[in-house]
Amino acid sequence: MKLRILSVALVGTALVACGDSGTTSSSTSAGGGGTGGSTTTTANGGNGTGGTTTTTSTGGGGTGGFGPDYSCDPPTGTLPNLKLTEFATLGSVVQIKSPPGAPDRVFLVQQNGIIRIVENGTLVDTPFVNVSGLMAGGPGSEEGLLGLAFHPDYATNGRFFLHFTRKSDHNCTVMEFKVTSDPMVADPEPVQLVLTEPTAQSNHNGGAVEFGSDGFLYVSIGDGGMQGDPECDAQKTTNLLGKISRVDVDGTCDATTGCPAAAGNANGSKIYHQGMRNPWRISFDYCTDDLYIGDVGQDTYEEVDVAPKASGQLNFGWPYREGMHDFGVAACPVAPAGLIEPIAEYTHAIGKSVTGGYVYRGSKIPALRGAYFYADYSTGIIWTLRSVNGALTDGPTDTGMNPGNVSAFGQDGEGEVYLSNYSNKVYRIDAE
């Protein structure tokens, strides 16, 4: 399976749970699909010159605690053919991660509220935690358990954070949990509220949680549903919809309002980045501190965005823009200056729901270092691209691998990249 520059036809129309295309409701079935048209992705060589607000914080990034096991060396050698190696059989996996200090354990987050562990290649029978009683939704919807983040000091404090749909009010909610004295089992009782936000509908929940190298927690939430964001929520500063929030989980947290905004956020708000429709998913590159965002489009375009290290707070344009193109709604009549263009987009002739991934920082495939993986849920196509300081330098490139319905990517404690599909399979990306 040699890498090749993207030029593919549409082969399916299903939409990823928690990441719809905006033209239909989400579905977990593979669905039918015509042959579509053959088209090529568009990539943007630059990433704009700022946002609508500024900050004194660097807004770093990365996966704190992983450093010694990740490789920040430049890519070397010839890129081999790539393959998908089956790693586990498990349904509705929406997140794949290793905790700091335990690279031999890979945690599989299921949308039904259960987290399982694969240790040394074996799926452990006993779940790490089951929070299904706290949440609404699950497989077949865009609600449920959507994200997991380990505290950078997890190896010593056992703290971790889950993003899920709260049962009592269907709010997008992040809560802190803690592992028990047994490192393979966590306490299902929440420690404290971190963040909660009401949504207008049951879709566009985003759902990612990631720690930056600054020690703050970044939380993605979509625009709250409704096609076209008719209320312009993604641009409002009065809610967290269509935003990436940045909060201080080590600060004094309140039982009603959650944890405080991170130091350096503009105007003391939890909002950091804004102008996204449904960011499914976000991830930091440990080696560069750049934040990658896969933002699900509306009618025509899917996009990948990058917030470079030290860029400050950025506005990615939705609903003024869809991808690199004007969109606009009545509630958002005039676009502000400084909107950030995506570094890559593709049309709905190719796929209909982007799944954001991770930058490869492993040691098994040296030529792959620095390559960001992402995919389309509806067609299963997997691409790579490379960027420097938010500017595209290579790709997008079709990898030739296609497991169908890619619902999530992940990364273990050694920088290797994984993915899951909605056909109950988890794979590791390997060299042939």
Describe the structure.
Strand 10 (159-165) and strand 11 form a beta hairpin. The longest helix is centred in the middle third of the chain and has 4 residues, at 154-157. This protein has one helix at 154-157; strands at residues 4-5, 42-43, 82-89, 93-97, 105-110, 114-119, 122-123, 129-130, 145-150, 159-165, 172-179, 186-197, 209-211, 217-221, 243-247, 271-274, 279-284, 291-295, 301-307, 321-322, 325-326, 344-347, 354-355, 372-376, 382-388, 391-398, 406-411, 417-421, 425-431. The strands form six sheets. Strands 3, 4, 5, 6, 7, 8, 27, 28 and 29 form a nine-stranded mixed β-sheet that branches. Helices cover 1% and strands 34% of the residues. The relative contact order is 0.21. It has a single domain (4-431), classed as Neuraminidase. The protein is built from one helix and 29 strands. By secondary structure, the protein is mostly beta strands.
Jot down its keywords.
432 residues; Neuraminidase; nine-stranded mixed β-sheet; five-stranded antiparallel β-sheet; 1 helix; globular; disordered N terminus
Instruction: Spell out the CATH superfamily.
Output: TolB, C-terminal domain
**How many helical elements?**
1
Low-pLDDT ranges: 1-42, 45-66
Estimate the helix proportion, in percent.
under 10%
**Bulk shape:** globular
Order of helices and strands: EEEEEEEEEHEEEEEEEEEEEEEEEEEEEE
Biggest beta sheet attributes:
9 strands, mixed
Q: What is the structural class?
A: mainly beta
Number of domains: 1
Q: What percentage of amino acids are in beta strands? A: 25-35%
In round numbers, the mean pLDDT is 86
Radius of gyration: 19 Å
CATH topology: Neuraminidase
CATH architectural type: 6 Propeller
